[in-house]
């Protein structure tokens, strides 16, 4: 997708600090971490938001959850705990219109909604 920041990260024209990659999913460190561990889990395919998920994407979403679980182990937060967050739409503060989950942990996290 032209002009999509995360599509550019997928194709490599914008660099990222990768944690995991396979044919369908990429995990990389957030450029402005909100906690000691903050990575983004994205599909390589452009899906703008949760609102744009189709039933054919369900297997992909399952894979992303499994990869989140493995990433939490790899980054040492599986036992201490973490959050997996998706922002969808303006009120959530979604800034990048390419579906992504934030995996955040490594310290005690504050209240989710203020
Ligand atoms: P959103 O607010 O859309 O849920 O989250 C977008 C996230 O992408 C933010 O946490 C932001 O720090 C991160 N981000 C924005 N631009 C870049 C970038 O160029 N590289 C990386 N690694 N993360 C980015
Ligand atoms: Zn995209």
Automatic annotation (TrEMBL):
InterPro entries registered for this protein in UniProt: Histidine_triad_HIT, HIT-like, HIT-like_sf
Domain HIT, chain residue ranges per copy: 5-114
Molecular function per GO: catalytic activity
Name of the featured protein: Histidine triad nucleotide-binding protein
Organism: Paenibacillus mellifer
Short motif Histidine triad motif, span: 98-102
Pfam families: DcpS_C
Active site: 100 (tele-amp-histidine intermediate)
């Amino acid at each position: 997708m032209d002009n999509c920041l995360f599509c550019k990260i997928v194709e490599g024209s914008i660099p990222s600090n990768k944690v995991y990659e396979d044919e369908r999913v990429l995990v990389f460190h957030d450029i402005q971490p909100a906690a000691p561990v903050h990575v983004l889990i994205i599909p390589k395919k452009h899906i703008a938001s949760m609102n744009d998920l189709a039933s054919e994407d369900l297997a992909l979403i399952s894979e992303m959850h499994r990869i989140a679980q493995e990433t939490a182990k790899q980054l040492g937060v599986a036992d201490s705990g973490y959050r997996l967050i998706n922002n969808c739409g303006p009120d959530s503060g979604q800034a990048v219109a390419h579906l992504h989950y934030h995996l955040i942990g490594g310290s005690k996290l504050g209240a989710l909604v203020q």
